[in-house]
């Protein structure tokens, strides 16, 4: 895998304290530190980035990251999405690629992020503005779960649509129908991220509460890359319990 080391790449972790489904989840304890600290550490430990920042409106989260030796930036309160939040933060930074890592994914790992970044290094014509990850799922409960965002793509891997409903609809209940979960990790060229912030949210994004629909509604392209790493996202107290069990088993193995 060839990387252009002149392409400065940073990771931004947007961190909002008052998450709608599970307020305060980023400050819940996982192992020896809060979830947001573990996510920061995992992202930093991949060794893929020139710099890693947590971007937050919360003084509590800011102080927590700094007290654990991390880097944090304060942002405005009124952002529509995590990508809007990090767009504010990178405006005056000298960077080429910005990877948006979700703050509730403390098991963030190198393999998937490396694949995401590599797609830009292989894009000699600079046709990709935004890339993201998807993973195949087959559990009927997860397919039906509205907290699991599903994505469908064309033959080139470009996103057609994202939804909290199961897509595609399998009219004949075919066993050949494949479902993909969207992993909320994005890699932007800096200008594409700044453009994203200027685009007005439209009906689909506001309805589904899925930020990448803004790009699709405005006619932009999203390159999807398949990964086999499912990971753990902490959206509910039940997810946190599962994460704590996995964290403990990983430390004991």
Which range best describes the helical content: under 10%, 10-25%, 25-40%, 40-55%, 55-70% or over 70%? Answer: 25-40%
Shape: globular
Low-confidence stretches: none
Count of individual helical segments: 9
> What share of residues are in beta strands?
15-25%
Q: Report strand order across the widest sheet.
A: 5-4-1-6-10-7-11
Mean pLDDT: 91
Number of strands: 11
CA-to-CA gap between the ends?
Answer: 30 Å
SSE blueprint and pairings:
Layout: E1 9-15, E2 29-30, E3 33-34, H1 35-45, E4 51-56, H2 59-67, E5 72-74, H3 82-90, E6 97-100, H4 110-121, E7 130-137, H5 140-144, E8 150-153, E9 159-163, E10 179-189, H6 190-198, H7 203-208, H8 213-217, E11 223-226, H9 237-252
Parallel strand pairs: 1-4, 1-6, 4-5, 7-11
Antiparallel strand pairs: 2-3, 6-10, 7-10, 8-9
Helix pairs in contact: 3-6
């Amino acid at each position: 895998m060839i990387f252009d080391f002149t392409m400065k790449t940073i990771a931004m972790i947007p961190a909002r304290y008052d998450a709608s489904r599970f307020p305060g989840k980023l400050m819940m304890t996982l192992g020896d530190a809060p979830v947001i600290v573990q996510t920061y550490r995992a992202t930093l430990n991949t060794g893929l980035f020139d710099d890693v920042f947590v971007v937050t409106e919360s003084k509590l989260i800011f102080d927590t990251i700094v007290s654990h030796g991390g880097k944090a930036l304060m942002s405005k309160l009124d952002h529509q999405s995590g990508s809007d939040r990090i767009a504010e933060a990178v405006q005056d930074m000298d960077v080429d690629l910005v990877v948006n890592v979700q703050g509730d994914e403390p098991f963030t790992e190198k393999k998937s992020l490396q694949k995401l970044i590599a797609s830009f290094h292989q894009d000699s014509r600079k046709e990709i503005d935004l890339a993201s990850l998807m993973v195949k799922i087959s559990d009927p409960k997860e397919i039906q779960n509205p907290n699991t965002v599903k994505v469908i793509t064309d033959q080139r891997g470009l996103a057609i649509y994202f939804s909290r409903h199961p897509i595609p609809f399998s009219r004949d209940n075919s066993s050949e129908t494949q479902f993909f979960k969207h992993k909320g990790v994005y890699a932007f060229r800096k200008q594409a991220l700044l453009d994203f912030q200027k685009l007005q949210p439209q009906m689909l994004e506001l309805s589904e509460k899925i930020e990448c629909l803004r790009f699709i509604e405005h006619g932009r392209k999203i390159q999807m890359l398949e990964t086999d790493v499912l990971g753990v996202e902490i959206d509910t107290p039940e997810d946190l319990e599962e994460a704590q069990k996995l964290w403990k088993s990983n430390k004991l193995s």
